[in-house]
Amino acid sequence: MENEFFFQLILAVILGGLIGLEREFKKKGAGIQTYSLVSLGSCLFSLIAFSLANLKILDPSPILMAIAVGMGFIGAGAIFKGEVQIFGLTTAAGLWTTAAIGLAVGAKYYYLAIFSTALVLIIFYFFGFAEEKIFKK
Length: 137
Known about the structure:
Low-confidence stretches: none
């Protein structure tokens, strides 16, 4: 069982790191370390919550909900309002989604986590490219 925990933590770090790598390429403030830590932390919290639930010690749902709320709070700190534009919304959304990916790994939804990571990378890379070309951002 502990070997699976180690696998889950490593997978969470890798998936978060892939998202962070894309952000590093775009020279964003939150990068590999930030996204890896968000995914790792969410995975670890969910592993602990599910383990305690299996032992009939507590209901895991408040812990899982706290991950979503906590990441919303952290993401809100990444948003800045300039004179004309708002910055950091994509970073906040990316961090929040990366927390969900870590939670999915902790819940043993590996394919869902991997597929979601691929979707995030498509959104960040291809949609970002399309925004630049179509809207001249």
